[in-house]
Amino acid sequence: AIAYAEARGEGVKGMALVMNVVINRSRKTGQSIHDVIHATGQFYTAGMTYDVSEECHEALALVMDGYDESQGALYFSAHGYPIYGEPLFQYGKHYFSK
User: Fold this and answer.
1) By CB neighbour count within 10 A (0-12 exposed, 13-18 middle, 19+ buried), where does 9 fall?
2) Can you give the pTM of this predicted structure?
3) Does position 48 have pLDDT exceeding 80, yes or no?
């Protein structure tokens, strides 16, 4: 649901990249995926309820099958590269960094 909330306009790949960021942070910090999503000041859409799209389910299937083109990204923003981290790439309206 967090990927849908954050990147529903970016299609399957955009939602998969958001999922990858959450997984990357979880692995780096040792936090659960839930804790990463609900960390203070991170995902403003955390806790909101959404009826996710079929594209979102496709993105999840891709990620579960090993898809990861995130280059290790830990952050993303729709307002240019985040002020922290090393800029990596832009996909659609989102800027990814690590």
Assistant:
1) exposed
2) 0.91
3) no
**Torsional class of 59: left (φ above 0), alpha (ψ -120 to 50), beta (otherwise):** alpha
85 and 75 in contact (C-beta within 8 Å)?
yes
What's the burial of 67, exposed, middle or buried (CB within 10 Å: 0-12/13-18/19+)? middle
Q: Is 23 left (phi over 0), alpha (psi -120 to 50) or beta?
A: alpha
Question: Residue 91 in 3-state DSSP?
Answer: strand
- The mean pLDDT value of the chain amounts to 92
* pLDDT more than 70, % of the chain: 100
Structural contact between residues 23 and 63, judged by C-beta atoms closer than 8 angstroms: yes
DSSP state at residue 44: T
